[in-house]
Amino acid sequence: MAGYMIRRVFMGLIVILIVTILVFLLIRLLPGDPLLMYLTQQQFRDTLYDPAQLAQLQERFGLDKPLPMQYIDWIAGMFRGDFGESISLQEPVSKLILDRLPVTIHLSIIGAVFATVFGIGIGIICALRRGTWLDNVLTFLANIGITIPSFWAAIILLYIFGLKLHWVPIGGYTSPFEDFWLNTRQIVLPVFCLSLFGLAANARLTRSCMLDVIAQDYIRTAWAKGLKERVIVVRHTIKNGLIPLIANMGFLVAGLFGGSVIIETLFNINGVGRLLTSALLGQDYMIVQASTLLFTALITFSNIVVDISYGWLDPRIRYD
Questions:
Q1: What distance in Å separates the CA atoms of residue 40 and residue 46, rounded to the nearest whole number?
Q2: Taking residues 51-64, what's their average pLDDT?
Q3: CB 9 within 8 A of CB 300
Q4: Domain extents for the chain?
Q5: How far apart (Å, rounded) are the C-alpha atoms in residues 239 and 254?
Q6: In the predicted model, is pLDDT for residue 44 greater than 50?
Q7: Angle between the 34-43 and 51-60 helix axes, to the nearest 10 degrees?
Q8: Rounded to an integer, what distance in angstroms lies between the CA atom of residue 112 and that of residue 31?
């Protein structure tokens, strides 16, 4: 087990390194210059900049150096906790991310709980009532949930429940410590859209796993003994049928953090996802690099935890 953990951590670090190199290079291949965009904004509020001032800004943000040196400086600064300074916002990137990270984590945790609890519950109901109208309806809705794009669902739900019915605010975010009820009304649609794919995927996978376990001989033996359905489901079926779902948790985390980029932008929520979207549009190199590194590290870490815990939960799996 120890050897496997070391290998998985090493592979995770390699993945993070490759992602940082790709993001570092790809963001600089985009047409345009973020410094010129920044100067153009300043020209409307201040005097015109001359080429000497542009050169000073390039030196300030380290953009006057060759690309390999820029990458080395960024990596070296990362180990010191310095992710650079935002070109467009003129603030430390670490501060910008830390201010918005609790919002993204809040939405992601609630979305993960919602997708897991309701997805597993729906899957169990469908498996136990296989072939009934309830199974058909819930399976049909789960199929729609997997295929429908989250941004399209967000737009439709915003139009119906926000603009037409006025049941929920159409955007914004308020801390639950300031106004819990307002926060609940603001995040109900974002959380649903964020967790829609995970909920539907969990429901389908749970149904499939439960049906496979129900067909096993020991389950038929339990029925033959005259055990109650509740006892069979809780003690035998769920315990063994949900083990494969652990492997799906890594994909769920990736979907939540990846979906936050679109959902936070549509619902005007100041999280890391919206910060990344704004940085991409403004070609703010430092924010894009740091945000992508954060998401990659979180997803990689969650996959490592899932792989290790999978072996603990299922004794049939051996890593040696």
A1: 10
A2: 71
A3: no
A4: 93-313
A5: 25
A6: no
A7: 130
A8: 37
Q: What is the pTM of this model?
A: 0.82
Backbone angles phi, psi at 61, to 5 degrees: -95, 5
Mean pLDDT of 250-259: 78
| Residue whose entry in the numeric block shows the structure tokens 């603030």 | 91
d(CA 106, CA 178): 14
The residues, ordered by sequence, that sit 6+ positions from 245 with a Cβ below 8 Å of its Cβ are 120, 202, 205, 206, 209
Tokens 């603009």 identify what position?
A: 163
Write the pLDDT tens digit of every residue in 98-145: 999 999 999 999 998 999 899 989 998 998 888 899 999 999 999 999
- CA R_g for the chain: 24
Q: What secondary structure, in 3-state letters, does the chain show?
A: CHHHHHHHHHHHHHHHHHHHHHHHHHHHHCCCCHHHHHHHHHHCCCCCCCHHHHHHHHHHCCCCCCHHHHHHHHHHHHHCCCCCECCCCCCEHHHHHHHHHHHHHHHHHHHHHHHHHHHHHHHHHHHHCCCCHHHHHHHHHHHHHHHCCHHHHHHHHHHHHHHHCCCCCCCCCCCCCCCHHHHHHHHHHHHHHHHHHHHHHHHHHHHHHHHHHHCCHHHHHHHHCCCCHHHHHHHHHHHHHCCCHHHHHHHHHHHHHHHHHHHHHHCCCCCHHHHHHHHHHHCCHHHHHHHHHHHHHHHHHHHHHHHHHHHHHCCCCCCC
Can you tell me the distance from the alpha carbon of 241 to that of 310, in angstroms, rounded to the nearest whole number? 13
Joined together, the tokens standing for residue 292 give 């992508």
Tell me the two tokens of residue 123. Answer: 């899957």
Distances (CA, A) of 57 to 87, 253, 295: 9, 38, 29
Classified by CATH at the fold level, domain 93-313 comes out as MetI-like fold (1.10.3720)
- b/e per residue 122-156 (b: at least 16 CB within 10 A): bbbbbbbeeeeeebeebbeebeebeeeebeebbee
Q: Count CB neighbours of 272 within 10 A.
A: 27
**CB-based contact 273:261 (threshold 8 Å):** yes
